[in-house]
Design a protein that fits this description.
321 residues
């Protein structure tokens, strides 16, 4: 006699038990994607070191400011934005805003070895001078729209499987190649390089622990003069100016996004006092740290980073600013 057996119903809790169906490690993604909502005039900062951010605006509008001094860029729902390596982007909602963020490393798994431009693999001269990075944007294609909806659907269930979202990031890069003309792909990804494992990544690894250009040269295992040549090839500016730019971006982000006191920020970035930090902010941003923290950016735009002295001198001169 045939026995009836009820159909097997999988335990839904197993979906959230942390046992991934993917066996590989995450190739590029650094953290679970974030779905955020901001009220009008709210602002946040995102920072990249040896990595990148992708932003997907799902609703509302926002002003984006790259590296504190660039003109603001107005973005709206249905656009994605690529944030280059070594940057700080400030997001200010101009109306109720909803957006996704993906934070990831360079990886050949993403572009299938089809980067728009080959990076410098080793400490050698580059054929093309560096271009000052900027934000690049693309409107959503129908495929990207469906892809973004699938991400928000997964996030609603509080899935924490990094490998799942890493696969979805690879799918995104596939959609970029399928849905857009090559020229549009290359412009959007012009500051992405799948194998950024040479000089620039070593710089990002060491620079926050280096007080002076000589310290950085020692950490990199090269002479100060060789470091200057490498910086000219890779970044298009002297190392001291680059270090000051990065210091300024970290200070700016901490003023906006952290509860650290001015004294704590000064100590973190090698200023001898909060007074020297304030002088640095006024010179670089045209604003005091207090005004930056309050969001009073009506007069932002100081003298910028133009350090005096010979290339390779220490950064202590910021204490005299």
């Amino acid at each position: 006699m045939h026995k009836y057996s009820a159909p097997h119903v999988p335990d839904e809790d197993l979906l959230f038990a942390g046992q991934s169906v993917f066996k590989h490690k995450s190739a590029a993604l650094l953290s679970i994607p974030q779905l955020r909502r901001l009220s009008p005039d709210d602002r946040v900062c995102l920072q990249t070191e040896g990595n990148y951010y992708l932003l997907f605006l799902l609703g509302g509008r926002a002003e984006l400011r790259l590296n504190t001094q660039h003109p603001t860029t107005l973005t709206e729902a249905g656009e994605m934005v690529f944030v280059p390596m070594g940057s700080v982007v400030e997001i200010t909602a101009t109306e109720p805003l909803e957006y996704l963020t993906f934070h990831f490393l360079p990886s050949v798994h993403l572009c299938a070895r089809q980067c728009p431009e080959r990076p410098v693999q080793h400490f050698s001269s580059a054929a093309v001078k560096a271009v000052e990075p900027y934000l690049t944007r693309l409107p959503f294609s129908p495929g990207i729209t469906y892809w973004a909806r699938s991400i928000t659907e997964y996030l609603q269930y509080s899935l924490s499987d990094l490998r799942l979202f890493d696969v979805k990031l690879q799918e995104l890069f596939l959609l970029l190649r399928m849905n857009y003309a090559r020229r549009m792909q290359e412009e959007f990804l012009r500051f992405f390089h799948c194998r950024r494992v040479g000089f620039s990544c070593q710089v990002f690894k060491h620079h926050l622990n280096c007080r002076t250009v000589d310290d950085l040269a020692m950490a990199m295992g090269v002479s100060p003069s060789a470091l200057a040549r490498l910086f000219d090839d890779e970044f298009g500016i002297p190392p001291m100016k680059w270090l000051l730019q990065q210091r300024a971006r970290h200070v700016y982000k901490d003023l906006i996004d952290s509860d650290l006191s001015l004294t704590e920020i000064a100590e973190r970035y090698y200023f001898s006092s909060a007074g020297y930090l304030s002088a640095f902010c006024r010179r670089v941003f045209g604003l005091s740290p207090i005004k930056i923290r309050r969001g009073d950016l009506s007069s932002v735009g100081g003298e910028g980073i133009e350090p005096e002295g010979e290339e390779g001198e220490g950064l202590e001169e910021t204490k005299e600013a």
